[in-house]
Amino acid sequence: MATQREQDAADYLKKHKIMELMDNLTSMLFFYRPEKPREFLIEQLEQLKISQQGGMEGPNLFNNSNLDAVLGILDPTNQRYITFAQYKQALTTLGIKDINECPEGVNEDRISHETFKTEAMQGLQRCSATYEQQ
């Protein structure tokens, strides 16, 4: 049974999404492995502050070239589309939980690369909700 102090601390961390923020920053450190990790973290937090003011997107692990690499794996013959099942699996693998179930091309079971990348970037930004000001 947690004490009131422990419960208050847990509520605070949850309300301000501190654990998610720390997980994201740690993941970015492992992914990029900067020579100067403290400066890198400061830059990420500064980027976060700017994104909260509407100036730009928040920090994110994935960029266009990363998503192109994912598409290269999903579409090795470069048909310029993937199936809806591939789309869902890839977005889930990227850690996106709230997947658009009706993206453009779903009725034909042909999700274009552009649609996938748009949905992925939007989903990753939503995942970065840890960066929302509380």
From TrEMBL:
Kindly give the Pfam families that the UniProt entry links to this protein. Answer: EF_EFCAB10_C
Specify the EFCAB10 C-terminal EF-hand domain's residue ranges: 65-125
**Which Gene3D superfamilies does the UniProt entry name for this protein?**
cAMP-dependent protein kinase regulatory subunit, dimerization-anchoring domain
What is this protein called in UniProt?
A: EF-hand calcium-binding domain-containing protein 10
| Organism listed in the record | Lates calcarifer
Query: Gene of origin?
Result: si:dkey-42p14.3
